[in-house]
Amino acid sequence: MRVLCRDAEWLITKVEFSDHAHRHHAVHCVGADDLVRGHQAIFLTQLDGIEPVDPRNTKLVKDSSSGYRLSKLFLEAQLRQMPATGITPDLVGMGAFQPMKFQTQTVEWALKQLRPRLLLADAVGLGKTIQVGMILSELMRRGRANRILVLAKKSMLTQFQSELWNRFGIPLVRLDSEGIARLRLRIPANKNPFEVYHRIIISMDTLKNVGSYRHFLENTRWDCVVIDEAHNVAGASVPERHLSHRLARLLSSRTDSMLLTTATPHNGKRETFGRLISLLDPSAIPDPDLRGYEAADIKGFFLMRFKEDVREDAGENLTDRLLVPIAETTIAATPAEEKVFEVLAQLRKASTGSKKTNDEIDPLLQYGIYKQFLSSPESCRSTLQKRMHNVEARDADSLELPHLKSIDGALLKLALRESSRYQLLKRQLKDLGWDGSASSPRVLVFTEYRETQDALAAALAADFKLKYSDKFEDQPEQALATINGSCPDIHLMKTIEAFGTGSAAIRMLLATDVASEGVNLHHECHNIIHYDLPWSIITLIQRNGRIDRFGQTEKPVLRYLMVKTTQVLLKGDETIFERLITKVEEINRSTRQGETVLKLYDPEAEERYIAEAGLLKGNINVLEKPATSATAEAADLEAMLSNANPAHQADFLKFLLGETDEPTAPPADVAVEETSRLRLYGDKRFFLEGYRFLAESNQDYMPVDEAGKLILFTAPKDLRRRLGAPDERGDVIFGSTAIPGESWPENNQFRLTDDAEQVEMAIKAARNTSGYWSKELLCSDQHPILQWITERLLMLMQRGECPLIMSRNLDPGELCFCFIGQVSSRAGAPLVVDAHAISFRKGGTFQHRSLREALEAAGFDRLINEGQSGNLEAAQILIPAAVETSLQHMKVLREKREDELKKPLRVEERRLRNWQTRRRELLESKIDQLGETHPRARGYKRQLEDMEAYLADRAKNWRDTYFTAVAEPSTQLLLVIEGKN
Amino acid sequence: MTEQLELHPSGLSRSQFARLEEYMRAADSLALDELLNLTEGHLERASRIYQANRLNNVRLAAAIRDSIIAAASEWENLSMVARHWLAAAILYFAQADDQEPDFSSPIGFEDDAEVLNSCLRFAQLDELCLNPEDYDDV
Questions:
Q1: Which residue range forms the structural domain that includes residue A335?
Q2: Model-level pTM greater than 0.90?
């Protein structure tokens, strides 16, 4: 039932007695009009006046606007705020991007799920963020993404935020370390910061390090939680102690939808993948240790695609890359370096010749110092000296010391600037035409070590006469910039943004692995140089993926710098390094193995393995087969994932739904589908006409200008306040409409267009000039400015009033009542929304049709206002009958929808019950084996209780919230059209 | 009687069986007619609730009632033990708040069907067993 209270409209969800005498009630409500939509409130009848909203009492008002603009815009605004309910994605006008088939399939699958929960495990660089944006857009249209929380790595915050804003018009408020500090100053200490804004992006580090947020997070619910690079929340060996994992689990229990993205969904262990799946749905895997599961348990929860799966779709968005032949990027060591290599060779001989096993000798001695020297003398010396210091303190007679001292002595005369590797780098830069000036191409240089990075930056600055400071805040402004793990999030994001901006001064980015995951560095750069070589396939794939990714328009060029030594003992290493590079290219070209070729799943494990099983043993075939230490478990897991992965199926939706040739889901209601996106105006026309209409009665609304496809529009004060303009700092903006501060335009002038390609060009142009933020935005339904116009237009009519207009196209005397009806779930989520019209004609006949048909019949588009007042009284008298017919129609639709939902809900409930039975059996048998008093048995008992609590919560907060319809549908009279002669 | 009841229906989960045993003791004092009245009453309630919540599987509830009536028509031919267990299964059906709450869960009668099937098999009335998924269609 809908009620009016405190001047807003509410939907009642529950009523309880609020006093012992049972005279008063507590009325639980959820907001139903634009001011309070989605808000939950409890009103006490002894304090608040609560009146039922009855559409039968709607008062008709004559529309005297010219061309019936008022009615047309009011109706359009009503249609625009009407939620979609179908399950087919509608990509028209969704955003500025070219959707690929594989991306659309992701959205289709998400919408087909009763509860969209998905692990998106596509390979590096296949546009996972775009797919997240598409899913969020569709959920927003369905009223299921009002509250969004995105968790990303600190280096990714701005990038993610700007992608969603530029391409989809979805505004996320970034709570980085600075943002959260600012916010806390502006709100009372006990106010939940996560309820101030409705759409937030925050880094996992910020969230997990501030223990005091847990309380706030436990008291807030989300519609959709997105976790980017989700492998970071899979939990380490003891997940209970892993803060990020615990946080992710908490969020999972507080949200309706959940999207996890990662290119590395597991590390070869069943439980890590199992943990990610159980984050999506705790009821997927019965085994409490998350190890025992089958393909059927995890099918449908993840999508995993590789380049070769999508190559056909992606076309020009994936370019083939070029590896500069290794011979051209190899140089001979200098005589001074050869001396160090000689000592290092002796050290390796001594350490490998020892009777001790590999585990007993420090890897640093066996190959660590060597690897450091391959990077730079500075890096090597720094490690060496720390080591000598430690060894001397521990055991002054250690056999290690003479070796260390001899390396140190040999290193004394060496510096990176004179090293062969550095000379090779300079030669490569020359080949590239790079001299640090503004005309130099952008280059991304990776190195393993901080000391190398420092020495390299100093040497380059001196040789190319570049001004260089190592202060974090100076990096975005310099031709030569460095980033590493110690860089605070704000400066890191700014430097990465500058590197993707054409006009920025930055010419070279010297990066350590802080830049190797997720970030986009491909917009203005297609040259990558690996100054030294990480001994890991995973790291190399991640690094190359920064520029070789979806949307790269130039051919990526890769250079691996190599130094040759004449030391016989180290000779085999060169071959292994070359094979490592070749392997990475081979994987890129042809296989689906992705990063799992050695089946070690961890860069450090790969490094150790390549060193110990390859370099130390002189085994040049080390990369040809999976590591001997890799377990059968990893191979089994991969085989199972491949079986359960829908991406390899010809028709993956059918596969996921377990369908054969006949669809099991009943076809969607065609009438509802058609009208769910009924529009009388295009987005741009709606904006222009709506705004101009509003401007007529608001003097401070500046005129809008049109320039070609562009609309130039100066935001008036009320909009500036609503969108959180930088000059409106006095207020905290509550709600979901605050837009990213950096995207705020100069002079408050927004540039909107309905041409998605133009926006894509503007995004590129922004990269050339100013950074992440596009100056032109898509004029789309979900853009906060259009939402503002929509809401302003809805206020053109008083509550409980509706316009009456005349049409010569209807039969004389016909009265056509236009409605939007809705059936809500108990929590107010729309289950059925339908726009329809009921016509009464002379002679007592009546007709029911879709609103689309009725408006066409009335020639609504072309109507002109001839000033006749119409038969207000007769129309007014017929309203109750029209409302009754509309409600009857909605009841039929409700029953139809419930019938449609029966099958999928029963399938889901059966799955849950099966999980419950299997889990209970497993837990009870474990308890029986251990004996009831065993500490671990007590843990299992707790898990039994948790399971019951989870199932009860799921029934209450999911099934009843989203799928159990309230008994009475509601309807709203929007417009009455009267036929005349 | 305890000795007799060492023979019992199989294929049920621990909690289902524990509940069934409990109902068996309660059913001891009820005549077949009373049990059948309870069955009819429960089905009527399900039909009423279906008007407000169509997710309720009233079709399966009706099928269970039919199976119970068919089993009752064989009552005289059943062993004492089988009658006891079947009476318990009927009582299980007549209770709304069992393992899957009958009226609030879309699969609220499936545990009732499982329990009844198990007892029907025990009574060698396999032909009366039900497959819940056959009653999914609208």
A1: 331-411
A2: no
